[in-house]
Predict the structure.
Amino acid sequence: MTYTDCMSKDSVLKSDFEVDPQELRSTRQFLIPAQKETPAIAKYDIYPTFKTDGPIYAGFESLAAWIMAQEKDVVIDGYSAVYWDIFVNELNDELHKKGVEANWVNSHTAFKPEDTINQLIAPSMGGDDPLFGKIYEGDLSDLFDYQKLSSLKPVDGRLNIIYGSGAALAKWDAVVLYIDVPKNEIQFRSRANKICNLGDHQPVDPKVQYKRFYFVEWPLLNKHKKQLLPLVDVIIDEQRITDISWTTGGTLRDTLKTMSRNMLRPRPWFEPGVWGGQWIKDHINGLNNDVVNYAWSFELIAPENGIILQYRNTMLEVSLDTLFLYNNIAILGKAAERFGDAFPIRFDFLDTFDGGNLSLQCHPTVPYTKKNFGENFTQDETYYILDAEPGAEVYLGFQENIDKQEFRTVLEDSFKNNEPVEIGNYVQIFPAKKHDLFLIPNGTVHCSGKNNMVLEISATPYIFTFKMYDWLRPDLNGNPRTLNIDRAFENLDFSRKGKVVADTLISKQSIVKKGNDWQVVNLSTHPDHFYAVERFEFDTLIEEYTNNQCHVLSLVEGESIMVTTNDLQQVIHYAETFIIPADAVKYTLTNTGKNSAKVIKAFVKDECC
């Protein structure tokens, strides 16, 4: 039997089927195991956890037992891409074994008609644009027919369970369960054509689906989740589909409270790409190396990463934004007033070792971003060179003699006729070496060349890349890659050329504090960057205060460090990214490796809060 999460008229209650989670996701990335395994070598951990007082439970049998002990009706709400039919079947089987015949009510039957929803969200879907839309500003309730939703009532004398994304909007007097699905798994399920957008009856192209996730459904579901967080009685990690883990809402909230005062590390995820390289495969253990390359590690992209809770060896993952929705002020401190629930800073890896150049690109200005995409801030970036081969380069800013119209004509002719462009005639090329920082404020033409391992330190918006030239490459499936020449030329800053580039877009590094065996180095950023970048360099230890700011850090040289916050000690290995919340107040970094340690730090500038 073929399963999707698409809206069905009735629940599918069958007990004679088997589910293979790998058939319901399209990726070569491993599914996170249910149990934490101790690695043979203490290096970069692809499944970082935060220990909880728990407990965390495993399986549908224990969940069914918990439900029966409540003696109340049940609401099961959740994020997009839950395999609802499978979940209902698994839980129903366990209830049936215990002698309970539940009355299942599907809240998705109360969605407005598909055409009505499509008309409602059309202004946010960007028309024929294959990539970009505009953030929908309404609420999840906008997608529901109020009369239909109000008609979904419990039946006297039965255990009634209403389920589906938005089920809590029916306002039953019931215990509330919430199912979370990590964003990487949502995308893997989408690529397998196994999931639908809310209210849809059939899967659509994954790129169209992702656009609707990003601009419509994830903002709606996050608003809804924030309202439910204080009320949730059980949180469920469904990504292994038939092998769930779950804990109580009290345990979740207690852990989030502890986490908001201590160092935490998001769970990274990894993706191949047309320009991707081999550094990640060579340096990070536990990944599936049966892939052509790894182009990205999403170290900290707040809308897409997760956080993993651990009790004994059992793991449960929830989306990282759950932490910010719970208490953004504890995390962001003084920056919360400006950024709200949106986490402002992004860290990710761009691996071109033995790979290729990135596409030549730029990012939109702030006014353009607000007007066209509904985002409150834009994609101002920097390239921190974590590692580089001799001869590595970065393309940045224009040549002094740049002719705007000539450059555009060359790019458009290249796209039409599939002809190469000598980019160096138009764009400056700089040598790149370890620990350099290149500044890429919005509107700046740029790309990394091959043989770099870039730690991209950036403002969080992460999809607004306007490609102008992609070296005539198809994507990994052999299809043409989308270029955005028109949008690029609406945003390119042609004053960033000649000597101005070297003077203003290559960071100047200077020592600002120094001790016996430590120093703090300031890496200058551009006035358009709302964040600052510093580097700790130390042999033994260094102490720092948050000053009511959130700090994002990565160990960029050295084997490992011990991070101490409020008497909680956690280990960080080379190339791992971590967060120090504002409410941590103070933290200590202790070098536990044989060589000197260097830790890069980014935080919102005080004047930009």
In short: Residues 6 and 238 are 16 Å apart (CA to CA).
